[in-house]
Design brief:
The protein has about 140 residues and is an alpha/beta fold. The chain contains 5 helices and 5 strands, in the order βαβαβαβαβα. The protein has a single domain, classed as Response regulator (Rossmann fold), CATH 3.40.50.2300. It has a 5-stranded parallel sheet with strand order 2-1-3-4-5. α3 runs parallel beside α4.
Length: about 140
């Protein structure tokens, strides 16, 4: 059985945000999407701890607080550290991949260039997390 997810999307590129929302709509999913333009904005939201997301989709290259800096802050919090965080980025820099896994991410995904490939990737990603035992229904 698939759960309705609350997803925190941390992305500074509005075209990428629109692409993600368009994908969710195209797939007919009713997940709740919370948007943050950067890591700083996302941490402000998360530190309130009133509506924690089920998963976080995080871009790495952002202003103010980049993805790695955000992850480091997230993992220091005893409650927030367990939220599965998946990197969704264009960076295939091996050093970034290793650093993110060292900090404690749940996955690292390179955004495909073709929209249809992107839709399929997001579909599989959300299918997995919507039935994962870590996510409570």
């Amino acid at each position: 059985m698939n759960n309705k997810l609350t997803i925190l999307l941390i992305e500074d590129d509005m075209i990428e945000v629109m692409k993600f929302n368009r994908t969710i709509s195209k797939l007919g999913l009713n997940h709740k999407i919370i948007e943050a333009k950067n890591g700083e904005e996302a941490l402000e939201f998360l530190y309130k701890k009133d509506r924690l997301p089920d998963i976080i989709l995080l871009d790495l290259n952002m202003p103010k607080l980049n993805g790695i800096e955000f992850l480091s802050a997230l993992k220091k919090d005893n409650e927030l550290r367990y939220i599965p965080t998946i990197i969704l980025t264009t960076s295939n820099n091996r050093r970034d991949v290793l650093e993110c896994y060292k900090i404690g991410i749940a996955g690292y995904i390179i955004k495909p260039l073709k929209f249809d490939d992107y839709v399929e990737l997001i579909k599989r990603l959300l299918e997995y997390w919507s039935c994962n035992e870590l996510i409570k229904g």
